[in-house]
Structures are given as C-alpha cells and as structure tokens.
Design brief:
This protein is α+β, with helices and mostly antiparallel strands. It has one domain. It is built from four helices and five strands; from the N terminus they run αβαββαββα. Strands 4-1-3-2-5 form a five-stranded antiparallel beta sheet. Helix 1 runs antiparallel to helix 3.
Length: 134
C-alpha cells in the first residue's frame, strides 16, 4: 500500500506487479499467457537480470480495486502488489511500447477489468438479448 500512497501524493500512475522472472525468455512466455486472459499486460526490466510482469498503468484508486478484484477471482497471484511507475526500468512488452518511456503513458481510468475467466463472460443468451431489446 505504500506505493499507492506515494503515487497518489505525486499524481503518478501505478502498476499491479503480478510476477517477476529471472530471464527474458521466461518473462516473455508468461507475458503471452497473461495477455491471453488479461488486459493492460506489460513487461519491464527490473535490473539485475530480472523481468517484471505488470498490469497498468492505472490511477492508484483504480489499481487498488483491480488488485483486490483480480486476487479474489484467482486471476493473478496472491502476492501481487501495487508499484509506482518509476520503479520500473525499460519496457519490453508489448513490443514497441517502451520507445517513448513509461513516464509518458496515460493512466487508465476506464471501466474495471472483469475478474471472471473468459469462458464465464460468454455472449448473452437469446432470452437476455430479447429482454434487452424490449
């Protein structure tokens, strides 16, 4: 929660760090897995040969709610946490995103992520569609 308090004071955006890997190859493999089911997936160099996987950027309040929701749904690891954007090195995922640097990225304030797995977010039934049309 410290990152959230610091970020809110500075008006900075935050990320939800969900994983770190000791090699770029492992990080890229995990990024592809996460990107298949989550939005706003990013990869950053953490230094010392480590690579972080994070969701964002978000406003601190949105990030805190997303963190709680995605943890509760089991979509991200229980030890995921909020991290200020300044804690990350060069962005390498998505490819080409780190060219301008992370500081210039706008914070995401859109609707929260749906914590349900993709298969639970199926198309509405014909009954639901008919009810909406009325």
């Amino acid at each position: 929660m410290l990152a959230q308090g610091v970020a809110a004071q500075q008006g900075e955006v935050v990320y939800i760090q969900i994983e770190a890997q000791p090699s770029l190859n492992e990080a890229e493999a995990r990024l592809r897995d996460y990107a298949g089911g989550l939005r706003d997936v990013n990869g950053f160099s953490l230094g010392g040969g480590w690579y972080g996987i994070a969701l964002g950027p978000y406003d601190p309040e949105v990030a805190a709610e997303q963190l709680r929701s995605l943890r509760a749904a089991g979509r991200i690891p229980r030890d995921s946490y909020l991290a200020a954007a300044g804690e990350y090195g060069r962005q390498f995922w998505p490819v080409g995103a780190g060219i301008a640097g992370t500081a210039s990225q706008p914070a995401v304030t859109a609707a929260p992520l749906d914590p349900r797995p993709d298969e639970e977010r199926a198309e509405p039934s014909s009954e639901q569609t008919a009810a909406l049309a009325q």
